[in-house]
């Protein structure tokens, strides 16, 4: 009953459920002018006023988002003052596979006297639970859960309670910066790959000048192009990352020994690729990231390519490069023969998406040699880098959905078993380490049981809808445009897929190494990058900047999305970089933007406006976004955030002060820009 929590989709963006229609209707009622302040009086009239209903698992509405098994969870629900006759929590307990109800009682009013707050408590226990609310006004009933409001009882989309499940606080509160190491900065020319240094898969290495074309001189050899970026270069630019951009989490694409520039075809997990430096260089970089001498304390996440190895890996050794071990391709008597799945040895075997250069690992049964080598033993890859002297803070799991036994592409039940074992291994070394899975759709199967990933790369709930709303293209560069109301509906539906503490650590990026650059999709319009950055830094989740996105770097499909960083514009004198730094500082200053509630306030499809609130016990913040090419005056309904008439709000971007009048703040917002109104 609770397995399916995702709205149906047609193609990449269309949602067709009745619930979506309800939310679009609700969004329409939030347009200022349709509900003037004098019309907000509510009575017991057998009609539940949907516009006054609100609950999420922000700190004002859930006293334990990450409860222990011994902590009861007290929930708060908001209604219009005097509007309802009763409120009830209905929750499903996995311990007895049954529903239970908790009567809620009136607690208090808000500061404006507009709203009532009702409270109820779900008893403590170790079992996972799912809850919804039944709101009654005489003969009328409304149901409310994470998926939205409905007149009939929903069958999915409830809020989660998962006792004992926590996600890293530093990920919730941080800003991540993703680097493709060969293309960021050349810190040491001594380790540069030279022309013709070696040949792999028929391609000789090519050393290109910084800033030149990423395409190889020889057709089909793009992965053999090197520019000289390395770990020393990243280390030398930590001041830029930490202080100018304001990011404190570094996520590196693969850095281990590999013949390609992308390193997703690992040759040796225990050796940093010489083109990037050495294992000692990694130790130094990690220490400097964690240091506070060059900016705020930072965190390091490495890319774990554990679904497959390269065909040059010593376990496989297709080209007889290794003498220390006989690989699976060389002999069926190899000690690592069982690490892979051969249909007909040696030339027919399971590969990642059929690529023979990336043979899939066969994880076998629990306790197998592969599981022990990757994560299960103290000397495993996963555990080694989490421990001193590397002390990394987390793993991003590449192609994690495909990891399995038998080379079946992740389609058997062992995938979840492996992920659960990997989580146990990671947390046994560092309970605060992060596990970030790569999945391009609804990652709920890995994030809603509290035993696998902490979060996922948020293609589905951030990258795609942001691209379609702002640029009119999907993340692949194809034509796809949605209005503000559908943008809001999409965001709401994808948030509902996850527990709140998972939402807060989802990686929200505009671009990645696998898709076209946002700047490319935006047609080079830097104002669209401004708008996207404002949303990225004020939305739920961990903002993740793919190197260069802070200045609107352009680039098409792979490998063009992996251009070299332009250090002539990577400076605080660049307007987009300066805005990025300002936005990260704002995010760091206001916990409400990181772990506060999220409330949709207004969608205006005609004028391309979207307004939402982020709030906690300390601050109330309204964010107004204008996706039109011209400026608009936006009447922000701050009464929904309980901002009192006569109070002052400040636009954190412009510094302009405004006064709340009749529950509204009127603000002029430039085209493809925004306002962050805080009090």
TrEMBL record:
Write down the Pfam families for this protein, in alphabetical order: Alpha-amylase, Alpha-amylase_N, Cyc-maltodext_C
Domain Glycosyl hydrolase family 13 catalytic stretches: 178-587
Its domain of life?
A: Bacteria
Keywords per UniProt: Glycosidase, Hydrolase, Signal
Q: Is Hydrolase one of the keywords UniProt gives this record?
A: yes
Q: Which InterPro entries match?
A: Cyclo-malto-dextrinase_C, GH, GH13_cat_dom, Glyco_hydro_13_lg-like_dom, Glyco_hydro_b, Ig-like_fold, Ig_E-set
- Look up keyword Signal and say if it applies: yes
Q: Which residues form the signal peptide?
A: 1-41
Question: What GO MF annotations does this protein's record show?
Answer: hydrolase activity
Q: PANTHER family attached here?
A: ALPHA-AMYLASE FAMILY MEMBER (PTHR10357), MALTODEXTRIN GLUCOSIDASE (PTHR10357:SF210)
Q: What is this protein called?
A: Glycoside hydrolase family 13 protein
């Amino acid at each position: 009953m609770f397995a399916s929590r995702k709205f149906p989709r047609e193609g990449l963006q269309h949602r067709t459920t009745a619930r979506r229609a309800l939310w679009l209707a609700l969004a329409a009622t939030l347009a200022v002018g349709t509900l003037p302040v004098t019309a907000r009086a509510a009575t017991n009239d057998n009609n539940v006023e949907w516009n006054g209903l609100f609950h999420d698992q922000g700190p004002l509405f859930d006293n334990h988002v990450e409860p222990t098994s011994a902590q009861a969870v007290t929930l708060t629900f908001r209604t219009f003052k005097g509007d309802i006759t009763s409120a009830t929590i209905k929750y499903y307990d996995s311990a007895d596979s049954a529903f239970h109800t908790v009567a809620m009682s009136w607690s208090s009013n808000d500061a404006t006297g507009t709203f009532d707050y009702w409270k109820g408590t779900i008893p403590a226990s170790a079992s996972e639970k799912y809850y919804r609310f039944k709101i009654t006004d005489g003969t009328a009933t409304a149901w409310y859960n994470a998926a939205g409001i409905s007149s009939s009882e929903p069958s999915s989309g409830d809020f989660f309670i998962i006792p004992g499940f926590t996600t890293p606080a530093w990920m919730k509160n941080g800003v991540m910066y993703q680097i493709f190491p060969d293309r960021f900065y050349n810190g040491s020319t001594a380790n540069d790959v030279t022309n013709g240094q070696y040949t792999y898969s028929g391609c000789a290495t090519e050393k290109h000048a910084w800033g030149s074309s990423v395409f190889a001189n020889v057709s089909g050899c793009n992965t053999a192009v090197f520019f000289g970026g390395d770990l020393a270069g990243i280390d030398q630019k930590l001041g830029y990352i930490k202080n100018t951009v304001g990011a404190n989490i570094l996520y590196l694409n693969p850095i281990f020994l590999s013949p390609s520039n992308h390193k997703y075809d690992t040759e040796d997990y225990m050796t940093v690729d010489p083109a990037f430096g050495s294992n000692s260089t990694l130790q130094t970089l990690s220490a400097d990231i964690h240091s506070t001498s060059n900016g705020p304390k930072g965190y390091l996440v490495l890319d774990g390519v554990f679904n497959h190895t390269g065909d040059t890996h010593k376990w496989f050794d297709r080209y007889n490069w290794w003498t220390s071990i006989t690989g699976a391709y060389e002999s069926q008597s190899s000690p690592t023969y069982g690490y892979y799945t051969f249909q007909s040895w040696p030339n027919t075997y399971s590969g990642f998406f059929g690529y023979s250069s990336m043979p899939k690992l066969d994880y076998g049964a629990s306790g197998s040699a592969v599981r022990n080598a990757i994560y299960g033993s103290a000397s495993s890859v996963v555990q080694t880098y989490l421990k001193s002297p590397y002390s990394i803070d987390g793993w991003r799991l590449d192609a994690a959905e495909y990891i399995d036994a038998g080379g079946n592409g992740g389609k058997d039940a062992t995938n979840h078993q492996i992920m659960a074992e990997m989580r146990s291994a990671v947390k046994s070394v560092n309970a605060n380490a992060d596990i970030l899975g790569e999945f391009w759709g609804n990652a709920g199967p890995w994030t809603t049981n509290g035993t696998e990933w902490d979060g996922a790369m948020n293609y589905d709930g951030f990258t795609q809808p942001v691209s379609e709303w702002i640029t009119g293209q999907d993340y692949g560069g194809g034509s796809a445009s949605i209005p503000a109301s559908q943008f809001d509906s999409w965001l709401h539906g994808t948030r509902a897929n996850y527990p709140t503490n998972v939402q807060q650590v989802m990686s929200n990026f505009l671009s990645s190494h696998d898709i076209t650059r946002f700047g490319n999709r935006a047609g080079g319009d830097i104002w669209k990058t401004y708008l996207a950055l404002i949303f990225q830094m004020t939305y739920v989740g961990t903002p993740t900047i793919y190197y260069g996105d802070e200045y609107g770097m352009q680039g098409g499909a792979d490998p063009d999305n992996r251009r070299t960083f332009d250090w002539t514009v990577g400076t605080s004198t660049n307007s987009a970089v300066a805005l990025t730094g300002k936005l990260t500082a704002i995010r760091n200053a206001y916990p409400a933007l990181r772990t506060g509630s999220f409330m949709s306030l207004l969608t205006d499809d005609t004028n391309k406006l979207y307004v939402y609130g982020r709030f906690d016990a300390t601050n109330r913040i309204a964010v107004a976004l204008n996706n039109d090419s011209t400026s608009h005056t936006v009447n922000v309904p701050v009464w929904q955030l309980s901002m009192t008439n006569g109070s002052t709000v400040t636009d954190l971007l412009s510094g302009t002060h405004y006064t709340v009048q009749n529950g509204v703040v009127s603000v002029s917002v430039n085209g493809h820009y925004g306002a962050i109104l805080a009090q």
